[in-house]
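Hi,

I'm pasting everything inline rather than attaching a file, because the server keeps stripping attachments. The sequence lines come first, and each chain or strand is labelled.
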Amino acid sequence: MGLKRDVSLLKGARYRGQGPMLTFILHRIGGLGMVLFVSIHILSSFVGGDLGILLNDIYMNWGFQLFVFFCALFHAVNGLRITLLDLWPRLMAHQREAIWIEWAVFLPIYALAALVIVRTALVS
Amino acid sequence: MAARSNTLPLRKRGLNFEMLMWLFTRLTALAMYALVLFSIIGALVMGARTQMNLADVLRWGFMPNSTHIQSSNVPDLAPWSTTFWRVTGSLLLLVAASHGVHGFVVVLDDYISSHRGRTVVRWLSILFMVPMMIIGVYVIWTS
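And the predicted assembly:
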């Protein structure tokens, strides 16, 4: 039983879902990013050797750290919002307010971590 | 607007495997929060006397494995590589891996609509997840 849809990628990209749609997209990117990161990280620590060192060098790169921390933190904060609203469905009426709170939690933490990551990269 | 939810009662919704996995995803999210906070508290207790760096505390929190603080200024790795922390780390790995692989399947379901394709995705995800879990647990217990 497959779902029949007739929406092109371009049309899908122009869909204006506003704030909730943005969190949906970022949640997916974050989740897939972490699956990729954790899988390669486990394999590289298992294999070790030159390949492991090469992969660890990629992880220690500040650009990659900014990306992975964005994935992890956004997925965690957004996931907590989804969990709380799903387990207490009466709160779902306040979804947009919850998303504003979510950004208010996410942005200061991410900004502080990004500052530390970039400053550490610039010093060393 | 009255705050009324549009959710169906459980008996009308049906209780199938996908519904259980939906609940599983939410509950494992809470479990991961608990495990990460638990590990962070552990790192604060064990690292307090050594003036441990906050970045190292958080790296330990996301995965309590002693190799994650190997190159930090923690002098003695022995209290960090006990059976207790290996069990905590293994739990976090298993919970996170099952949550992550199920999420991967949910994402792919949005792009693969045939019944056959979805079955293939499910088998491939299991074939991918089980060896990764075994390798991950092996790395935790041998490092």
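The two ends of chain A are 56 Å apart (CA to CA).

If the labels don't parse on your end, tell me and I'll reformat.
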